[in-house]
C-alpha cells in the first residue's frame, strides 16, 4: 500500500510538471535557416496541433507553417507556426502570418549568422511528428544571450501564492469546523464506550450474584 501511495503521488507530480512544461513559454536561441508551408496529415498527434481555421481546413488534413532553425550547437530545431485563437493554451495568438514573415526576414547563414530568441510552447517529439508552436521571435546579441523567463516566474509565483492561500483557508476551516466536530464525535463515542463498560460491569455483577445464589 505504501508503494502504491508513492507511485500515485509521483504520477500526479509528473502530470503537473508535464502540463506546466508543455504550456508555459520557453525561449530558444537559434538561427533561422528557412520557412515553409506544407500539407500535414494529422492522426493521433492532432491534439498537439492548433484547431483548424473555420471554413479553410479539415481536422485531419491542412496546411501548416513551419520555421526551420539551427541551435548554437548545430542541432536542427523546427517549430510550427499556428494561431491559438481563443483556445488553449491561452496565448491569444492570431498573427501567425505576420510571424512567418518576420521569421523569413531573419533568415541567415552560418557565415553571417543572425541569432534570435524564439518564444514557444510545446515539445519536439520526432517519432510522433510533434513540433513546438512558435509565438514570437526577437533578435538577440548572440548565441550566449540570456533570457529571463519573467512570465513563468510571475505565473508560478501567483500559483504558489494561491496554493498557500487555499492551504491557509483549509487549515482555518478545519480548525473551526472539522476538528470541533471530530472532538464532539470522539466525546460522544467515549460516552458510548463508558456506558457500555458500565452496562457490562452491571451485567457481570448481576451474573456473579445470580451464580452465587444458585451455589447456595
Largest sheet: 5 strands, antiparallel
- How confident overall, as mean pLDDT? 85
Structural class: alpha+beta
Number of domains: 2
- Give the terminus-to-terminus CA distance: 59 Å
Which sequence of strands runs across the widest sheet? 3-2-1-4-5
Q: Tell the overall outline.
A: elongated
Stretches with pLDDT under 50, minimum 5 residues: none
The number of helical runs is: 3
Beta content: 15-25%
Instruction: Compute the number of strand runs.
Output: 5
Radius of gyration of CA atoms, rounded to a whole number: 32 Å
What share of residues is helical? Answer: 40-55%
| Helix-strand topology string | HEEEHEEH
Overview of this protein structure:
The protein folds into two domains: 2-147, no CATH class; 149-216. It is built from three helices and five strands, in the order αβββαββα. The mean pLDDT is 85. The protein is α+β, with helices and mostly antiparallel strands.
Features:
216 residues, 45% helix, 3 helices, 2 domains, alpha+beta
Write a brief structural summary.
The chain is an alpha+beta fold and 216 residues long. It has 3 helices and 5 strands. The chain has a 5-stranded antiparallel beta sheet with strand order 3-2-1-4-5.
Topology:
Elements: H1 2-23, E1 26-41, E2 61-70, E3 76-81, H2 96-105, E4 115-121, E5 133-139, H3 150-215
Antiparallel strand pairs: 1-2, 1-4, 2-3, 4-5
Amino acid at each position: 500500500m505504501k508503494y502504491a501511495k508513492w507511485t500515485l503521488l509521483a504520477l500526479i507530480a509528473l502530470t503537473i510538471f508535464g502540463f506546466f512544461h508543455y504550456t508555459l513559454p520557453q525561449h530558444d536561441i537559434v538561427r533561422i535557416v528557412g520557412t515553409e508551408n506544407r500539407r500535414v496529415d494529422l492522426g493521433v498527434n492532432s491534439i498537439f496541433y492548433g484547431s483548424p481555421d473555420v471554413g479553410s481546413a479539415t481536422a485531419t488534413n491542412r496546411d501548416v507553417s513551419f520555421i526551420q532553425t539551427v541551435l548554437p550547437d548545430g542541432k536542427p530545431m523546427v517549430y510550427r507556426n499556428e494561431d491559438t485563437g481563443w483556445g488553449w493554451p491561452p496565448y491569444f495568438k492570431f498573427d501567425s502570418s505576420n510571424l512567418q514573415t518576420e521569421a523569413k526576414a531573419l533568415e541567415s547563414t552560418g557565415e553571417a549568422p543572425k541569432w534570435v530568441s524564439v518564444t514557444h510552447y510545446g515539445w519536439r517529439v520526432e517519432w510522433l511528428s510533434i513540433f513546438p508552436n512558435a509565438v514570437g521571435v526577437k533578435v538577440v546579441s548572440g548565441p550566449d544571450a540570456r533570457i529571463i523567463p519573467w512570465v513563468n516566474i510571475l505565473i508560478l509565483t501567483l500559483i504558489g501564492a494561491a496554493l498557500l492561500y487555499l492551504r491557509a483557508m483549509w487549515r482555518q476551516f478545519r480548525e473551526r469546523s472539522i476538528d470541533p466536530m471530530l472532538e464532539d464525535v470522539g466525546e460522544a463515542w467515549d460516552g458510548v464506550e463508558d456506558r457500555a463498560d458500565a452496562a457490562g460491569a452491571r451485567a457481570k455483577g448481576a451474573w456473579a450474584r445470580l451464580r452465587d445464589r444458585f451455589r447456595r
